[in-house]
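Can you please make up a protein's amino acid sequence together with its fold in C-alpha cell form to help me picture the idea?
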Amino acid sequence: MSEEPETLPELNKNPRHIAIIMDGNGRWAQQRHMPRAMGHQAGVKAVRAIVEYCAEANIEVLSLFAFSSENWRRPESEVSMLMNLFLSTLQSEVNKLHRNNIRLRFIGERKAFSEKLQAKIAEGEIQTRDNSGLTLVIAANYGGRWDMSEAFKKIAAKIQSGEINDHEIDETLIGQHLSTADLPEPDLFIRTGGEQRVSNFLLWQLAYTELYFTPTLWPDFNRQSLEEAIGSFRTRQRRFGHTGEQILTKAVTL
C-alpha cells in the first residue's frame, strides 16, 4: 500500500511566510552620490510597496530585518539617523497599516531603544493586534542567536521551577519559546543587495526555508522583483526528507 498523501509536504503555491533582509540602502545612495540617509528613506518606500503586495496576495506573514543587533557597530551618526527614521516611520505608517487590516509585530530586544521609541512600538502592536490580514513582523535589535538564547533561558527557568522536566526538551518545545512561536516558519527567505548569507536572522526558523538572493539593492526591489522571487519559489521541490518520487506521486494523486 502506498504512503498516505497527507504525510507528504504540500506542493508549492504562494509562500505563507516571506522573510527579507533589506540590504543595499547605503550603496544605493552612494551610487547616486547621495548621503546614506537618502538611501534609507528610499528603502522605506520600497517597504511600503512590498507590504502592499503581500497584503493583496494574501501572504500570511512578512518578516523584515530592519535593524540587527550588530548594526549598533555602525557610525553613531548613522545609528541616530536610523532611530529617528524608525520613529517617524512608525508615527506615519501605523494608522495606514491598521486601516488595511495589517497586524504589526516586533521581535528583538527593545530595552536598547529610547523610551519614546519603545512606547511607539508598543502602541503600534496594541492598535493592530486584532487585525486578521497580513502579519508584518519587524525585527529590530534582533539576532537569531539572541532569540535562541532567550528561549533557552525561559526553558531553564521552567525546569528550575519544576514546570517542565529536562527530558521534555525537544525541537517543538524550543520553537514554542522563540519570539515567532505563534507564526509559521518562513517558506521563502530573500536577501537583496548581492550578499549571500543569512546574517544571524531567524537562524532556527530558516532550517527548511527556500533561499533567494538577488543583486538588486533594496530601494530598487519592487513588486515585479518580489513576483520573480515567488516565481522561483514555485519552481522548487520542497521535499522535507522525502524523495522526489514521493512528491511526484502526491502530485498525481491530487
Summary: The radius of gyration is 20 Å. Residues 1-5 have pLDDT under 50 and may be disordered.
